[in-house]
Amino acid sequence: MHIENKIRKDQIGKISSQIYTLIREEKRLTSRLRRDIRKLLENGFFFLAFDNGHLIGFIARENIYKNYYELKSWLVVPGLRNKGVGTSLLKKATSEKDFKYLIMTFYDDVIGISKRQGFRITSFLKLSLPLTIKILLTRNPKSVIKHVFKKKSTTLTKW
Questions:
Q1: In terms of Cα–Cα distance, which of 62, 72, 74 is closest to 134?
Q2: What is the pLDDT of residues 96-149, one digit of tens each?
Q3: Residue 103 near residue 67, CB atoms below 8 Å
Q4: DSSP class of residue 125?
Q5: Is pTM beyond 0.85 here?
Q6: What Cα–Cα distance (Å) separates residue 135 from each residue in 3, 27, 50, 139, 143?
Q7: What would the 3-class secondary structure string for 69-123 be?
Q8: Residue 45 and residue 73 in contact, taking contact as beta carbons nearer than 8 Å
Q9: φ, ψ for residue 151 (rounded to 5)?
Q10: What are the residues facing 130 on neighbouring strands?
């Protein structure tokens, strides 16, 4: 297995279609438009795990505000879960020491892996006001309602 975030231009269409399909099949992930996936790929914001040329997992790292980055759309194909792929993706996506990282999730497995990699649970309401505003403005309104008011996701930070 190897992880990369620099994709050749001629591969972006194929890989963005694969990511789009995997996200749609995984009911617990927030859906994304193909053009948004493509843009993240073009800018090197998706970290992709490959095994023998096959995409087996990914995580997106999006800049929210200054040096704050949110990790999202984290997926490992079902047959390869609990084998270290997700942990390897998280380590690679958080390797920039000057960045500050944030994860908002509803899932215990994501919380567990993140905590083992140095993330800590933080109240969303305790984030700085400028960061909170940027998070709210960069999300789909349905996502804001779901994460902040309805289901109330767990916020994890590493900084």
A1: 62
A2: 999 999 999 988 999 999 999 999 999 888 999 999 999 988 888 888 888 877
A3: no
A4: G
A5: yes
A6: 27, 23, 30, 6, 11
A7: EEEEEEEECHHHCCCCHHHHHHHHHCCCCCCEEEEEECCHHHHHHHHHCCCEEEC
A8: no
A9: -80, -25
A10: none
Above 80 in pLDDT, residue 151? no
Matching residue, tokens 């231009």: 9
What pairs with residue 54 in β-bridges? 51
- What CATH topology corresponds to 2-158? Aminopeptidase (3.40.630)
Query: Cα(140)–Cα(52) distance, rounded to whole angstroms?
Result: 35
Per-residue confidence band for 43, with pLDDT thresholds at 50, 70 and 90: confident
Place of tokens 């700085």: 128
Distance of alpha carbon 113 from alpha carbon 9, whole angstroms = 32
Written as six digits, the tokens of 140 are 């789909």
Q: What is the pLDDT of residue 75?
A: 92
Q: Which residues of 15-29 are buried (b: 16+ CB within 10 A; e: fewer)?
A: bbeebbebbeebeee
- AA identity, residue 34: R
What residue spans define the domains of the chain? 2-158
